[in-house]
Amino acid sequence: MIEVRELSKRYGRATAVDNLSFTVRPGAVTGFLGPNGAGKSTTMRIVLGLDAPDTGEALVGGRRYATLRRPMSEVGALLDANAVHGGRSAYDHLLSLALTNGIGPARVREVLEQVGLSDVARKRAGKFSLGMKQRLGLAATLLGDPAVLLLDEPVNGLDPDGVRWIRELLRSLAADGRTVLVSSHLMSEMALTADRLIVIGRGRLIADTSVRELEARFQRGVFVRSPRALELTDALRNAGAEVVKESDEALSVHGMGVDGIGEIAAARSIPVYEVMPRSASLEEAYLELTADSVDYRAAR
Ligand SMILES: Nc1ncnc2c1ncn2[C@@H]1O[C@H](COP(=O)(O)OP(=O)(O)OP(=O)(O)O)[C@@H](O)[C@H]1O
């Protein structure tokens, strides 16, 4: 579990994180979203004890990072995939990390296998593509078999196969009961990977929600098609729904879900050909949520 409580951080006159509170629970992938400069990296650095907050605190498993006895076995973090010693082989890079944390070489081979780098383990990491460096960074993250994982933009630089692989890896790590926090500025990616979403803008919390709740919140009514649309309109209105006629057969219904519409139609034996909830895509929902928090926007 990760707990962020009333966290604030300024750099000079810029407020990076502004009284931010949220909890990331185990057993789910939680997407950490926000436009550029929203404060995601700063928050992650504070959770990892790499930066000190001005006020508030961040706890991992109920404790501050600095007080964890075996940090690598409790938290795995991938902040910058390029942070490897280019002259070392992938194996040596991981081995040096492992040995300084009381982890043996067998585990190094295991994580290399897990991220698909076994065949290039003896190659210099400096020669790796960004995608391979991301895999190596993930291997380092997994070395201590930690219960909490924090990953900053892990799909950057990965090809579609790599993106799918990382998505499945994160989901399986969460299914094992781990706490997984993944930052991204791509809602489309998070919609496929995450169960929960924490959205921030200008350092403040905008939404702390499940993907499903967000979809429901941005629902745009229900599309209904029936050959007896007029009759159905009366029945739905009598039951309190708002109904807009779209064509002779098609209606847009607001204030009532698909179940209610189905029951009313069935009770009157009105045939219905289509009943479809219309929601904004999560991408649209995200843009709407963060519209006031974007610093730089292209003219339209
Ligand atoms: N070390 C620093 N010194 C000065 N300002 C900083 C520093 N780190 C972050 N900032 C500022 O704090 C704000 C939040 O930055 P942060 O990198 O945390 O955002 P982010 O959500 O991770 O953005 P991105 O998606 O662009 O990586 C920005 O305005 C940034 O310029």
From TrEMBL:
SMART domains: AAA. Residues 2-227 form the ABC transporter domain. Pfam families: ABC_tran. Keywords: ATP-binding, Nucleotide-binding, Transport. GO terms for molecular function: ATP binding; ATP hydrolysis activity. Belongs to the ABC transporter superfamily. This is ABC transporter ATP-binding protein. It comes from Amycolatopsis albispora.
